[in-house]
Amino acid sequence: MNIIPIVKCREIHESVSFYTRVLDFTHRGTWPLSGNPAFTILIRDSGELHLSSHSGDGICGNRFAIIVNDIDGLFNKFISRGLDTRKKESPVHQGPLDQSWGTREFYVDDPDGNIIRFIQR
């Protein structure tokens, strides 16, 4: 079984640019090719993520997690690609932190305020 999150976004092409340029996702396709509302499929490693700007597909401001292996290297790669760590009040947005529950994590806000939690177990 595959569980695929659908993440709400306001402007699909801006979101696709962020996910592919900064976060290493591969763009599989967008329908329709231009304009909004639209639907996109992104791939990263063996995972799939769907983006939608359709009115019935949730709200902006969701959270989802991605399990990774080299969290420090990944964070440094994202910084080199222009990741904005603008949430100064949130240390876990500033860089990987060891959590009391035994994981190492950092968080990223996408252009629509959805929070991606990168987690290394």
Protein model, in words:
The model has no long low-confidence stretch (mean pLDDT 95). The chain has helices at 12-21, 71-80, 91-94, and strands spanning 6-8, 26-31, 39-44, 47-52, 63-67, 97-98, 104-109, 115-120. The protein has three helices and eight strands. The chain is of the alpha/beta class and 121 residues long.
Q: Can you lay out the helices and strands and say which pair or pack?
A:
Blueprint: E1 6-8, H1 12-21, E2 26-31, E3 39-44, E4 47-52, E5 63-67, H2 71-80, H3 91-94, E6 97-98, E7 104-109, E8 115-120
Parallel strand pairs: 1-4, 5-8
Antiparallel strand pairs: 2-3, 3-4, 6-7, 7-8
Question: What key attributes describe this structure?
Answer:
single chain; 121 residues; alpha/beta; 2,3-Dihydroxybiphenyl 1,2-Dioxygenase, domain 1; 4-stranded mixed β-sheet
- The CATH homologous superfamily is called 2,3-Dihydroxybiphenyl 1,2-Dioxygenase, domain 1
Tally of contiguous helical segments = 3
Give the quaternary arrangement of the chains.
Answer: single chain
Give me the secondary-structure category.
alpha/beta
Strand order of the largest sheet: 1-4-3-2
Question: Residue-averaged pLDDT, rounded?
Answer: 95
The CATH class is identified as: Alpha Beta
Order of helices and strands: EHEEEEHHEEE
At CATH level 3, the topology is 2,3-Dihydroxybiphenyl 1,2-Dioxygenase, domain 1
- Spatial gap, N to C terminus: 22 Å
Return the domain count.
1
Compute the CA-based radius of gyration. 14 Å
